[in-house]
């Protein structure tokens, strides 16, 4: 079935090229930010905090405004999948939903265990380890030419649910205080937007205008304003308004090749200069982050699939085997974009956590590609559960 989804659209060759280019560009920007912050930290700091207007730095512009486009795309994904894609039936939803939930919970538990629980001053960073980067994970999976389409669709479904959990987490746990009046206004605007969808208002302008107001109201309410993008995207898709395939494709290219790389460049920089200092040894946050992501994500995602299949509750996606699903679960350890985003909201005392995110992403990328190569080297020869796996 053809799905109108980012990274997996009908123009197969173009979509594949975009996946690969986007993933490689994201990694390149992270590494460049890493090296920039290490060898010239003062200029990197000046870049991040460059004032575009009074009270608005470059980093704030990227994180609070440009990232709305990313969350808008997530909203479109969620809506499109409920209508045409992998979420169109309840049975199709259950396995990726459980995998995403287990992949969310396991790394958080491991991280909290490593730091000593919620009493630790590092506890505010627990959600950093729970995210999966859709763009990078799918981009790397697209490098595996023998991986079946059903495997990519399963990864997409898990990553979308993962994003939804991250959105809920940001709204509930990283909002310091609520302004009741603005909170009520935001609820009212959201209801109005979905009332417009019910009446099939097909002009795009009312949704964009209400979305801009919602962004401002959420900001005033104390909730991160980028969440307005999810509401706008979902409402636009549900309304059936004239948001054409071409517009959606332009949005995908813009987010993949511009917004996410700029976000990585503006947020991934952490200096390696003091990595072996006494301070770094005393505060091993990077190791905690990397361990929780690299162990917790595969444990949750693959563990839930393995258990469900063993108990004959679920069936594997078509043309896949458990080795492929294990390799895929390693890709889920890549949480670059949203992990960095949540890290900025967490209020941790230093940037050492960014090192853990980048290390986890690099290790998961290399290890996932190696495991997927061996898992798919027999092509369509699918291993059965209970056999040699």
Topology:
Elements: H1 12-39, H2 41-48, E1 51-53, E2 56-57, H3 58-83, H4 90-115, H5 134-142, H6 149-173, H7 180-198, H8 204-221, H9 227-239, H10 245-267, H11 278-282, H12 285-310, H13 322-331, H14 336-346, H15 352-375
Antiparallel strand pairs: 1-2
Helix pairs in contact: 1-2, 1-5, 1-10, 3-6, 3-9, 3-10, 4-6, 4-12, 5-6, 7-8, 7-9, 8-9, 10-14, 12-13, 12-15, 13-15, 14-15
What percentage of residues falls in helices of 4 or more residues?
55-70%
Distance between the termini: 29 Å
* Domain unit count: 1
Give the H and E element order. HHEEHHHHHHHHHHHHH
Strand content: under 5%
By CATH reckoning, the class would read: Mainly Alpha
Q: Which class of secondary structure composition applies to the elements?
A: mainly alpha
At the fold tier of CATH, the topology name is Na+/H+ antiporter like fold
Biggest sheet, spatial arrangement of strands = 1-2
Radius of gyration, whole Å: 21 Å
Query: What CATH architecture label applies?
Result: Up-down Bundle
Instruction: Name the poorly predicted regions.
Output: 1-11, 380-389
Number of strands: 2
CATH superfamily: Na+/H+ antiporter like domain
The description of the largest β-sheet is: 2 strands, antiparallel
Q: How many helix segments?
A: 15
| Basic shape | globular
Report the average pLDDT across residues.
Answer: 81
Keywords: Antiport, Cell membrane, Ion transport, Membrane, Sodium, Sodium transport, Transmembrane, Transmembrane helix, Transport
Pfam family, one: Na_H_antiport_1
Subcellular location: Cell inner membrane; Cell membrane
Catalytic activity: Na(+)(in) + 2 H(+)(out) = Na(+)(out) + 2 H(+)(in)
């Amino acid at each position: 079935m053809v799905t109108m989804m980012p990274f997996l659209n009908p123009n197969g060759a173009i979509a594949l090229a975009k996946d690969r280019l986007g993933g490689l560009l994201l990694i390149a920007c992270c590494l460049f930010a890493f090296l920039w912050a290490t060898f010239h930290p003062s200029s990197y700091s000046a870049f991040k905090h460059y004032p575009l207007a009074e009270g608005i730095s470059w980093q704030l512009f990227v994180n609070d405004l440009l990232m709305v486009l990313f969350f808008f795309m997530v909203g479109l994904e969620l809506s499109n999948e409920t209508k045409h894609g992998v979420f169109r039936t309840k049975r199709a939803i259950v396995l990726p939903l459980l995998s995403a939930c287990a992949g969310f919970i396991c790394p958080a538990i491991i991280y909290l265990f490593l730091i000593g629980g919620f009493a630790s001053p590092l506890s505010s960073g627990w959600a950093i380890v729970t995210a999966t980067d859709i763009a990078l994970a799918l981009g790397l999976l697209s490098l595996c030419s023998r991986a079946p389409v059903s495997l990519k669709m399963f990864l997409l479904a898990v990553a979308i649910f993962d994003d939804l959990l991250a959105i809920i987490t940001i709204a509930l746990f990283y909002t310091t205080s609520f302004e009741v009046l603005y909170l009520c206004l935001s609820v009212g605007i959201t209801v109005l937007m979905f009332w417009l969808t019910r009446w099939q208002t097909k002009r795009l302008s009312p949704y964009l205008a209400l979305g801009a107001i919602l962004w401002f109201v959420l900001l005033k309410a104390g909730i991160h304003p980028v969440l307005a993008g999810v509401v706008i995207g979902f409402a636009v898709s549900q309304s059936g308004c004239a948001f054409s395939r071409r517009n959606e494709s332009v949005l995908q290219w813009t987010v993949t090749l511009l917004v996410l790389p700029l976000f990585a460049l503006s947020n991934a920089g952490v200096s390696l200069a003091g990595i072996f200092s006494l301070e770094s040894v005393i505060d091993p946050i990077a190791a905690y982050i990397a361990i929780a992501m690299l162990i917790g994500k595969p444990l949750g995602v693959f563990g839930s699939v393995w258990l469900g299949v063993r108990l004959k509750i679920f069936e594997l996606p078509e043309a896949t085997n458990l080795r492929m699903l294990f390799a895929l679960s390693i890709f889920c350890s890549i949480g670059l974009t949203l992990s960095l985003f949540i890290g900025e909201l967490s209020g941790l005392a230093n940037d050492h956590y960014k090192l853990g995110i980048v290390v986890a992403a690099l290790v998961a990328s290399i290890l996932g590609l190696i495991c997927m190569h061996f898992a798919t080297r027999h092509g369509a020869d699918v291993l059965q559960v209970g056999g040699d796996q």
